[in-house]
Amino acid sequence: MRVRDASVDDVPSITAIYNELISSRTVTWTDHEDSVDDRARWLARRQAAGFPVLVAVDATAETAVLGFASYGEFRDNQRWPGYRFTVELSIHVDEAQWGGGVGRALMTELLARARRAGVHVVVAAVDGENTESIEFHERMGFATVGRLAETGFKFGRWLDLVFMQIVLDEQSR
Ligand SMILES: CC(C)(COP(=O)(O)OP(=O)(O)OC[C@H]1O[C@@H](n2cnc3c(N)ncnc32)[C@H](O)[C@@H]1OP(=O)(O)O)[C@@H](O)C(=O)NCCC(=O)NCCS
């Protein structure tokens, strides 16, 4: 497996992996599946802003995307520049690959990129029912720092939002 920057050619796979769980799980709080065009615009916006969008690919079949990870602004940095050293991540691995180290490989590279970019804090906002993701983030060094009760609604029930974070450096600016 290899982790590299995403290209437009990866967008159909990224879209499929993102859409995979929308109808069955509360991982993302929407019933709306992204189109390939939506994801292409998202990739272009992220890359234009200088944020990483990474894919893990099968080393023998470079076009076979196993998962993707990215980060972007936590809040609106133009309006509230005090948030500019904080980012919020997203990570999704093809269900067929879970437990195989793809998430760890993506997260390791994403955090390395964040350190190099001078990011201080990375935030993960995780659905409270997604205990697998909470455990994954804990294994990757994140701490659970807050739980916003009943802030989401899907499949006829309230959902909690669990905030997790990792502090990447101790430097003052
Ligand atoms: C969460 C997710 C990214 C993990 O990716 P993955 O490729 O399965 O994770 P890995 O195999 O690399 O595992 C990395 C570590 O997390 C732990 N972990 C992964 N899945 C876990 C689970 N279901 N329960 C407990 N621990 C888990 C592993 O034990 C492993 O620890 P180790 O390397 O110290 O042994 C993946 O399950 C996923 O895409 N889930 C759906 C989307 C999602 O929830 N995204 C996050 C939204 S906030």
UniProtKB/TrEMBL annotation:
GO molecular function annotations of the record: acyltransferase activity, transferring groups other than amino-acyl groups
InterPro entries noted in UniProt: Acyl_CoA_acyltransferase, GNAT_dom
Key words, A-Z: Acyltransferase, Transferase
Annotated TM spans: none
Gene3D superfamilies linked to this entry: 3.40.630.30
Ranges where the N-acetyltransferase domain occurs: 1-169
Any Pfam family: Acetyltransf_1
Protein name listed in UniProt: Unannotated protein
